[in-house]
Amino acid sequence: MPELPEVETVKRGLAPTMEGALLVRAELRRPDLRFPFPENFANAVAGRRIIALSRRAKYLMIELEGGDVIIAHLGMSGSFRIEKGPIEAGADPATPGAFHHPRGKDEKHDHVVFHLDGGSGPARVIYNDPRRFGFMDLARRSALADHVFLRGLGEEPTGNALDAAYLAARFAGKIQPLKAALLDQRTIAGLGNIYVCEALWRSGLSPKRSAGTLVDKRGRPKQALIALTERIRAVIADAIAAGGSSLKDHIQADGSLGYFQHSFSVYDREGEACRTPGCHGTVARIVQAGRSTFYCPHCQK
C-alpha cells in the first residue's frame, strides 16, 4: 500500500493540473473498483470546478465547488497520470517521466478518466489500477469527520499537533509493542510500516519494547519519546521531499520516481550491516502482526 509520503507526492503532482479546473465529465469504465462507485457518481461531479486537492492520512481528497469531496485511495497498484491537449487518433497515451517499473500505459486498466478544462486547455486525469484495490467515494465536506474511512483517525505526522505529550497520553500504561502502537491509525494517521521501521531505527528504539516504557510514572514523555516524535516527523518530511518511496507499483503523478527508497537505512535490509555509526550489528527481520519489521537488535533497545 502507498504510504503517506506517496499520497502527498501524488497530490502535489496533480494539483497544478486539477486545482481550478472544470471537471467537465467523469468517465467510469467499469461499475466498481474495490467497492462500487457511489450511485450517480459521474453525474454528481460533472460540471463542477475543482477548488483544491488535499490529503487526510493515505486518502487523496478532491474538493469540488458546492461542498462535495471525492475521496480516493490508491490501493496497492493505483496511480494517476495526466494527459494534456486534445485527444488525437493514434496518439501514444504515455505517462510523462521515466519508469523503473513501467506501468499505466495499458488502457484496459484505465478505469476512471476525469475530463478537465483548465487554464492551459483540456486535460485528462486517468486513474489506472491493475489490481483494483483502490476506490473512490463522494462525501460532503461538512461530514468528512464522520465518514466511515476517516472518522477516528489520529493526528497527522506532518503537523504541530503530533508531539511527545500527545503520544505519552496514548502510550501510558500500554504493554503493546511500540511498533504496533505507532501503526495504530487512531493515534497517528497515515504512518505506515516502512516509515515506522525507519523512525525507530533513527531513534535507537526496539520495535518489540512496550510502548508504555516511553512514559514516566507521572504520564510525561521520557526523553526517548521526545526524540522518537522528532524522528517520525523528520523521516516523513525527508520522504516527501524525496518524492516518496515509490516501492513496486507506486509512481508519482508525473511518472517520475521518488528516490527515498534508495536511502532506506533499515527497511528491507535484512542481513546487511547496521548503518548506525559505531554499531557492529546486523539488520534483522521479524514478523509483527503479519507485517515485516526490520531493525538492528544490537543498537535498537
Verbal overview:
With 301 residues, the chain is of the alpha+beta class. The protein has helices spanning 4-18, 41-45, 164-171, 178-183, 193-203, 223-242; strands at residues 22-28, 48-56, 59-64, 68-73, 79-84, 110-118, 121-128, 135-140, 284-288, 291-295. The chain has an eight-stranded antiparallel sheet. The longest helix is centred in the last third of the chain and has 20 residues, at 223-242. Residues 89-103 and 246-250 have low confidence and may be disordered.
The number of helices is 6
Task: Average the pLDDT over all residues and give the rounded result.
Answer: 88
Number of strand segments: 10
Give the N-to-C terminal Cα separation: 28 Å
Gyration radius, rounded: 21 Å
Low-confidence stretches: 89-103, 246-250
Cofactor: Zn(2+)
Binding site for DNA: 109, 131, 174
Keywords: DNA damage, DNA repair, DNA-binding, Glycosidase, Hydrolase, Lyase, Metal-binding, Multifunctional enzyme, Zinc, Zinc-finger
Domain Formamidopyrimidine-DNA glycosylase catalytic: 2-134
